[in-house]
Automatic annotation (TrEMBL):
Belongs to the short-chain dehydrogenases/reductases (SDR) family. It holds the Pfam family adh_short. It comes from the Bacteria. Transmembrane segments: none annotated. The keyword RNA-binding does not apply. The keyword DNA-binding does not apply. This is NAD(P)-dependent dehydrogenase (Short-subunit alcohol dehydrogenase family). It comes from Paenibacillus aceris. Keywords: NADP, Oxidoreductase. InterPro entries: CBR1-like, NAD(P)-bd_dom_sf, SDR_fam.
Length: 244
């Protein structure tokens, strides 16, 4: 049995997820790097191993219940519990069309990953997280999830000026998952929070973001390593609380 804390990061093979793995690995966590593509997962894990990080690839497509159940079994067999789950895997499938022109299939597929996938992984992993003395769950939300911000003409153009119904509403729903799971778990040691990494240069946005993955991952790491007196059911970026 390992004595270091075990973290599962979904969509850990690139972008903010991979950098979160790197930062937590350097803090001594054992990294379970979730990737829907086995080869991409192995390749990313090899880069972490080369940096002396204890990392292992796990094939995990968050829209595929079989791979989720297989991941649960692997973690249970090898570690018996899970300390931290980072629901990082996410997609932005729309290409700038206004809500009235959004295809239903794009909306459905976005929710399939961002909402139903994150829900399914959380639900499946929860029995293992309950076996940790101090379980933590971090949901990758977005500044574009905030109803307050995206409905406020006074907020910056980066938020009010964007109108991507599928992506934005899916991340608002992710925030609802955070709040409602937190309510259920409030009398346990588990803490679940939403993180906004900020507009970060990754494949998700064609590298148009102006923040680095190092900056984006920092709030995720902070919420993954909260002490016992930390918040539960909140929504944060690196500057503090974000309005819902
Ligand atoms: N970048 C930003 O500005 C920004 C801002 C706010 C929030 N976020 C959120 O941060 C998270 C990470 O995004 P990123 O910017 O790092 O994007 P990214 O580089 O595109 O990485 C997304 C990751 O999610 C994985 N993924 C997608 N669908 C999956 C599925 N069904 N099962 C398992 N993995 C899946 C991808 O795997 P493949 O490599 O196989 O495609 C990839 O590893 C997302 O939840 C995103 O919404 C990003």
């Amino acid at each position: 049995m390992s004595t270091s804390k075990i973290v599962l990061i979904t969509g850990g093979n690139k972008g903010i997820g991979l950098e979160t793995a790197r930062q937590l690995g350097k803090l001594g966590f054992t990294i379970l790097l979730g990737s829907r593509d086995e080869a991409r997962g192995q390749e990313a894990t090899a880069t972490l191993t080369a940096e002396n990080i204890n990392a292992k690839a796990i094939t995990l497509d968050i829209t595929d219940l079989d791979t989720i159940q297989s991941a649960v079994k692997q973690i249970d067999d090898q570690y018996g519990s899970l300390d931290v789950l980072i629901n990082n895997a996410g997609v932005c499938l729309e290409r700038g069309l206004p809500p009235s022109q959004l295809e239903l299939t794009v909306l459905r597929n976005t929710y399939e990953t961002n909402v139903f996938g994150s829900f399914s992984v959380t639900k499946a992993m929860l029995p293992l997280i309950k076996k940790s003395p101090a379980g933590r769950i971090v949901n990758l939300s977005s500044g574009l999830a905030s109803l307050t911000e995206y409905n406020n003409p006074e907020s910056d153009a980066e938020k009010y000026g964007v109108n991507l119904l599928a992506y934005m509403s899916s991340k608002t729903a992710v925030n609802a998952l955070t709040v409602l799971f937190a309510k259920e778990l409030k009398d346990t040691p588990i803490k679940i929070n939403s993180a906004d990494p900020g507009y970060t240069a990754t494949d998700l946005n064609g590298h148009t973001g102006y923040r680095t993955v190092e900056q984006g991952a920092s709030i995720v790491v902070k919420l993954a390593t909260l002490l016992g007196d930390g918040p539960n059911g909140g929504f944060f970026d690196e500057n503090g609380v974000i309005p819902w």
